[in-house]
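Q: Structure for this?
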Amino acid sequence: MGTADISKVTKEELSRMMVGRDVQLQVEKEPAKPGEVVLDVQGVTMHNAAHKKDSVKNVSFQVHAGEIVCLAGIEGNGQTEFVYGLTGLEKLSAGRLTLCGQDITSASIRQRSKDGMSHIPEDRHKHGLVLDYTLEENMVLQRYWQPEFQNHGFIRKDKVREYSDRLIEQYDVRSGQGSLTIARSMSGGNQQKAIIAREIDRDPKLLVAVQPTRGLDVGAIEYIHRQIVAQRDAGKAVLLVSLELDEVMNLSDRILVMYEGEIVGEFDPKKTTVQELGLYMAGARRQGKGE
Amino acid sequence: MKKNKLSRAGLQGSLVGVLAALLCILIGLLCGYLVLLAINPAHAWSDGFVRILKGGFYDAPYGVGKMLANAAPLVMTGLSVAFAFKTGLFNIGAAGQYTLGAFGALYCAIVLHLPWFVCLLAATVMGGIWGAIPGVFKAYLNINEVITSIMFNWIGLFLVNEIVYGNGSGVMYDSRNTRTWNLRKTAGCEGSVIPDFGLNDLFQTNSTTIAIFLAIVVAIVIWVVLEKTTFGYELKAVGLNKNAARYAGINEKKNIILSMVIAGALAGFGAGLYYLSGVSEWNPLNSTSLPAMGFNGISVALLASSNPIGTVFSAIFISHITVGGSFLSTKYYPTEIADLISGIIIYLCAFSMLFRGKIRGLLFAGKRADKANANAETAPAAVKKEGK
Amino acid sequence: MLLLIKYTLLYGIVLMLVALGGMFSEHSGIINIALEGIMVIGGVAGVLALTMLPADAPAIVVVLVSILASAAAGMIYSLLLAFASINLKADQTIGGTALNLLATAIAVVLAKYFSESGSAKLNYSNKPFLFSIGGLELSVFVPLGLVLLIVSYVVLYKTRFGLRLRSCGEHPQAADSVGINVYRMRYAGVLLSGALGAVGGMAYIVPPVQTWNFEVGVAGAGFLALAVMIFGQWKPFHIFGAAMFFAVFKSLANIADSTFLASFGWSSNIYNMMPFIASMIILAFTSKNSMAPKAEGIPYDKGSR
C-alpha cells in the first residue's frame, strides 16, 4: 500500500504498488517466425439485420502459424460481428473462411472447434461460462463429448475431475472449493483464467482471443499476455481482437485496423505509433485509397 | 480428504433444500388451519386439520391405496415440469400434454384394444407431440414457451373433447355415464388395464396398480439422464446459459425442442398411468377446466426444487393432503381446503430461495469460512424471458 | 348481426380491461401471469358484494359498490405478486402461477362458504348492470371500459407518472439514477393491473348469466388477455383492436346455432378453439418485432446498479 502523486508516478511504479511485485507491462518476446498460413479470410461480409446494414464489409487477411495478428479498432466497428462469423456464432453473407487448408465457411461451431479453432470470447459471462455450472463442468465445456470424458453418453466424472484439477494446478486458477466451485462465485480474473486454460489446453491451431484482458487487474493481465505469447512461440496462429492500444502495440506482430466494418490499414507495430493507429481507427485516414 | 469435504458440501445443499421445503409446508399447513378456524372453529382441529394431516391413513388401507393411485400421475406431471425447469423452460403445458396423453391411452385401449404397455407408449408419444409444439415455437420463433403452452392447453382440451364426444356418438363415449367407457367393465379392454399384482386386494381399492412403481422408475431414469449423461449436461447448459451452450457447439434449438418433447412425454405417460389404472374416466363435456393434475405438477416440481427424486416425495405429500381433504366432512368444510394449502405452499416455494439463505445462515453460520457457496445456490428455474 | 356485436363488445371489453391491466404491470417491468387468478378473485369479490347488498338498493349504488369491491380485492391480491416479485425478487412466472392456482382454491372456498347450497355456485342479479340502446343490450362495463381505455392512454403517455412507469420497465437502473423509486413504480404498475384485471373478471362473469360456478374460474380468459396484450404490442389502442378481434371469434360460438354458420355443423369445441389458434398464428407472425418492455421479468436490485 502507499500513495503516490499522479504527476510523478509511472505506470510501472503504480502497478508494482498494486500487485506487490514488479510487473512486466512490456511483454518480452522474440521476433515472430511466421510459418504457413493457418487462417485465410477471403472477402467476408456480414449483414446486421437489426441495423439494416453490413457490419463487416469485404474483409480479407491471413494469419500464419507463429504470429499474433491483432484486429484493432474502436468498439462497434465490426470486430465483434466478424469474430461471431469466424467462430460460427453467426452466418456470413459472403466470403470464404479457410482453416489449415480446409474450407470452414459453413462448418458448424463444433466442427470448427474440432478443426483446431479455440475461442476466448469477448463476454465471458454471456458466452464463456455457464455461470451456474461448477468449475470442472466449465472446464470441459468444449470437450465433454470427446471419448476421453464420456462413455456411451455417460460422463466420466472421475476423468473430468482429474482433468479439471490438472488445469487448475497448471494455470493457477484460484477458487474457493477447487473443481467444485460454482463459476459464478469466482472472481473475474480467475473466471477468465479458467477460460484461457480451457481454450489453450485444447492445443488449437488457431487461437481467437477477443479482449482477453478486459476488466482484469494488472497481475492477471500480465499472466494472460505471457500465455498468449507462449502460444505464438509454440507455433500457434493467434488472432487477437483488442480495443486497448497498449495491448495492441505490445503483443502483436501485425496490426490490422478496422473501421466501419472494413480493414483500413495494416501495420508493423515496430514501425508505427499509437498516434498513427488512432488516426486510422477514427476513420481520418485509410491505406490504399490514395492518401 | 478432499473428496470427503466436497461430498459434504453437496449433502449440505440437499439438506437445506429439504428443510426449506419443510418450512414451506409448515407455513402452508398453518395457514390452512387458520382458514379452518375461520370457517368453523368448533370442528377445526379433529374434524378438519387432523383429517388433512392423516391423509389416506384416515381410512386405511383404502385411503392409502387411493393416495398412491393419485400420486403416480402426479409424480409424472411433477417430473415433466421439473425436467423442463432443469433445462431452463417453464412447462405450464403439462395439463395439455396430459390431456393428449389421456386421449392416446384411451384410444388405444377402448378402440384398438391394445395391451396396457402399448397404450402407455401411445400416451407418452401423444404427450411428446403436444410438448414439441411449444418447443418449436420457442426454438424457431423465439416465442415464450409459457404463452404457447397455455394456448395449446386449451386447444388440446377442446380437440380431445371434440374427438371423444363426437356430438354424443363418439366410439369412446359412454353416453349413460357421460364419460369414456370404464376400462374394467368393458369387454375387450381388460388387457389395457395396468396390472396390480394384488395391490387392489391389499388396499381394498380397485385402481391401485403398479403405476406408482413405474413412476418411481421413470423418476430415477430422469435423474440419471440429467446428472450422469452428456445429454443431460447439454440440456442443462442450454437451460442455464443458451449463449454459452451455443458457443460450446451445442445445438440449442434441437435441445430446446427435445427437452419439451421429453417433458410432454412424461406428462403424457402420467395420464396413461392414471387412466389405464382406471382411477376415473375422461369427461368430454367438461370444457371449462383443464386437468388439475397438470397444474399440480407445478406444485410438485417447485416443492422438490426440481430434483427428480424429490418429485416422488413431494407428489406423495401433495396426494396425501389432497386425499386428506377429500375425507373432510362437507357438512363443515369445503374439500378445496387442501388445494388452498397446496396453493399457499407453492406461493411460498416461489421465494424459497430466501428461506434457503436463512436456513443456511442459521445452520452453518460460523462453521464454514467460505462464503462462496452461499451465493452459489441456484434457482430451481432459470426461466428467463427472451421477447415473446 | 346485432347479437354478434353484442357478444363481441361484451367479451372484447373483458379482454381489453384485463390486457390493459397486464400492460401497466409489464410497462413497470413485472410480468403478470397471475391475471387469470386476479380475474377470479375480482369476480368472486364482486359477486359476493352483489349478493350481500340489500335487494332494494338503487342500481347505481349496486354497480358502484360491487365494482369497487372487486377492484379492491384485485389490488389486495396483486399485492401478493408485487411483494414476491419486487421485494423478494422471486421468479415472476412461478409466483404468478402459484397465485393462479391459489385464486381458484380461494374462490371455491369462499363461494362454498357463502352459498346456501354448499356448492361453489353463487346466484345474483345482473339487472343493474344491463341497459340497452336501440335493441342492443349492453352492460355498464362497455362504457366503463371505453372510459378506462382513454384514461389508460392518457396516464401512460401524457402524464409524468406514465413516463416514469415506462422507464422502470425499459431501464430501471437509469430510472433509479434520476431519482425515480423503482420499487414504488413497480408496485403501482402491479396494483393497477390488479384493479383492472379484477374488474375485467367481474365483467366476464356478471353480465351474461345470473349464476356462476367458481370451480370453473374464468376458463383461460386471463391467459387469452395476455396474448391480446402481446398482440396489441403493449399499447392501449392496439390492445383494444386486438381484444375485439379475438372477441369476434369467441362470439361466433354463441351465435353459431342461429345463423348461417349452423350449416357447417361445427360444435362449440371448434369455436372455442378458434381464438387460441388465431392467437398462436398471430404471435408466430408478430414475434419478430416485439415491442415488449426491455426489463420486464427481471427483478430490480438496487445493489446491482
